[in-house]
Design a protein that fits this description.
4-stranded parallel β-sheet; binds 6-O-phosphono-beta-D-fructofuranose; 18% strand; alpha/beta; 41% helix
């Protein structure tokens, strides 16, 4: 039997489609198990400022389909210091909150680890970031929606590229990770994909672009935001190498973070929301809940934030083989 009676949930870091589905699942699972549920506004900053309020089943009605996060999200300088975290802890204690579910990415789990080191309060994390850059889960909440947004945008860019015989360099999000670039590149038939995890071989890319000229009148090169040089430099390099090409750059930006979550993100968030509360009730803490091969798995925060091995280099081969 668990002693946990009151759980609070927050979202932190960059928002991601599906976070609302996750909040809904956490709140309703808690209520299902007879617990009192609370929401914390604006992530850790709201926790430091005491922006904590009760949530009931109705407060999460009609949000499963909405992008963004109804709890809002923010960065918190204060929470980085032990004094800031002490303030946050006191607000939790005043309301007898005895466990937390935090939804976010690596910064969120780093903050949760620091809080856990200082205070004995169980915390479970849910992976919510469009970048998919966490270990311990095949996919993060928001990634599927974001790549579908990218695919939709690049398909449109392809139409105009084809009409004008142009080459488009498209920069997509992923501060430290090429996972958005890689999947969207395969599914839009990109001729090349540049990601921070792999050394870029410009000679090979230029050769490939030149070779593809006989079969295609448009070309798409996808560059992850975290690439060493970024979309603008890549576009300039391609233009300098092929002066006769009509090269354009499109930076997709925050459009990738918004919008209605896909079915996959809603189901993922719902499953992880249920598992996070039930994990707390089983006595778990300091872990992120994820899905690996369709099965719920818990991974310590420290391991979850190291995502180095997540890029499947077979996928880059597929881009190359299919770019002919
Ligand atoms: O972490 C998700 C992410 O979308 C990154 O890919 C991107 O670099 C970053 O957020 C942008 O953050 P902000 O909205 O704070 O500029």
């Amino acid at each position: 039997m668990s002693n946990i009676k009151n759980i609070a949930v927050l979202t932190s870091g960059g928002d991601a489609p599906g976070m609302n589905a996750g909040i809904r699942a956490v709140v309703r699972t808690g209520i299902y198990h007879g617990l009192n549920m609370f929401g914390i506004r604006r992530g850790y900053d709201g926790m430091v400022q005491g922006e904590i309020f009760p949530m009931d089943a109705k407060s999460v009605a009609n949000i499963i389909q909405r992008g963004g996060t109804v709890l809002k999200t923010a960065r918190s300088e204060e929470f980085r210091s032990p004094e800031g975290r002490q303030k946050a802890y006191e607000h939790l204690k005043k309301l007898n909150i005895d466990a937390l579910v935090v939804i976010g990415g690596d910064g969120t789990f780093t903050g949760a680890s620091a809080f856990l080191d200082q205070f004995d309060i169980p915390i479970i994390g849910m992976p919510g970031t469009i970048d998919n850059d966490l270990s311990g889960t095949d996919f993060t909440i928001g990634y599927d929606t974001a790549i579908n947004t990218v695919v939709d945008a690049v398909d449109k860019i392809r139409d105009t590229a084809e009409s004008h015989d142009r080459l488009f360099v498209v920069e997509v999000m992923g501060r430290d990770s090429g996972l958005i670039a890689l999947r969207s590149g395969i599914s839009t038939g990109a001729e090349a994909v540049l990601i921070p995890e792999l050394e870029v071989d410009y000679d090979a890319i230029m050769k490939r672009l030149d070779k593809t000229r006989k079969n295609k009148s448009s070309r798409i090169v996808i560059v992850a935001e975290g690439d060493k040089e970024g979309g603008m430099v890549v576009a300039d390099k391609i233009q300098a190498n092929f002066p006769s090409y009509d090269v354009r750059l499109s930076i997709l930006g925050h459009i990738q973070r918004g919008g209605r979550p896909t079915c996959m993100d809603r189901v993922l968030a719902s499953r992880l929301g249920v598992a996070s509360v039930e994990g707390l009730l089983e006595g778990r803490k300091g872990e992120m809940v994820g899905l690996i091969g369709g099965q719920v798995q818990f991974t310590p925060f420290g391991k979850a934030i190291k995502h180095i091995d997540k890029v499947n280099t077979n996928l880059t081969r597929i881009v190359e083989i299919l770019s002919l």
